[in-house]
Amino acid sequence: MARKESNVLRRKSAPLNGFVSQVRLARSLQTVSCVVVGERELKRAEGPLAHEKQDEAFISIAVAKRRFDAQLGQRLLAFARHKRRPVARVVAELGLVETTDAAQIARLARYRVARAEDKVYAEVAARAGVIDRREAAAVLVRQRDLYADGRGFIRLAALLRSDKRITPETDRMLRSRVRAFEKAPKKECVRETCRALLLVTDEVCPTCGAHAPIPVANPSGSEWRLSEMSSVG
Ligand SMILES: [Zn+2]
User: From the CA of 212, how far away is ligand 1's center (Å)?
Assistant: First the structure.
């Protein structure tokens, strides 16, 4: 007990404290990455926008956790972009958030972004007839449960591939459709209980079967709801 306390004191009074914590953060940001089968390959496919999305998610989570307000959050985001550095590191270095806290928020942000991407992937796979909607929703549930059990965040494509439900070729085809889906204009299902995200060109909601008439406002950003995939949390 006594030794523990003196360790804490020594750590607190160390002259290189700032540097040490920077290194620690850098390390924790590297090691907490949710890694899996084919992750490197998937990383390559993520594209340059993944990092920006993660930074935005980081700020939105930190604001929700009341680490700072939304206005400061936006300024931090702009500052980090200007400096071309991860916002998690910038925030920790400014002392706004403890390093371990920053690492945890960064991990949540990565999860949120990857999970949102995989919901789009599931939607696209269902639309392509590669898997049916019920199966797509079930795989998303399994992904969430594995993560909750501490088994890591396993990308949907990796789960489907290990189940032999898709081949690498199908995966490539789905990825290009995901990109097209993300670019295409969207509308929301008009049914209150559904609110699935549809393409403007959809005449019927694939989830609930509701007629999908006039395009409404284009919902932006990462808070999309994707048919039943969205209820999976
Ligand atoms: Zn619907």
Answer: 8
Is residue 9 assigned to a domain? no
> Do 82 and 124 sit in the same domain of this protein?
yes
Using the mean position of ligand 1's atoms as its centre, give its distance from the Cα of residue 11 in Å.
56
Distance 216 CA to ligand 1 centre (A): 14
Residue 104 lies in a domain: yes
230 Cα–ligand 1 center, Å: 12
Q: What is the pLDDT of residue 233?
A: 55
Claim to verify: residue 87 and residue 168 sit in the same structural domain: yes
What angle in degrees, to the nearest 10, is found between the helix axes of 99-127 and 168-183? Answer: 100
Domain holding 72, by residue range, is 17-183
Do both 54 and 140 map to the same domain?
yes
- Same domain for 178 and 202? no
Mean pLDDT per 10-residue interval, the chain, length 233 residues: 45 41 45 41 53 94 97 96 94 95 95 94 96 94 95 95 95 96 92 91 92 64 49 53
The total number of structural domains that make up the chain:
2
User: In 3D, which of 120, 121, 136, 139 has the Cα closest to residue 196?
Assistant: 120
Is residue 199, in this structure, part of any structural domain at all?
yes
**Ligand 1 centroid to residue 213 C-alpha, Å:** 12
**Residue 218 within a domain:** yes
**In sequence order, which residues have a C-beta less than 8 Å from that of residue 9 and are 6 or more positions away?**
none
Q: Quote the pLDDT of residue 232.
A: 55
225 Cα distance to chain centroid: 14
- Which of these, 194, 217, 219, lies nearest to 207 by C-alpha position? 194
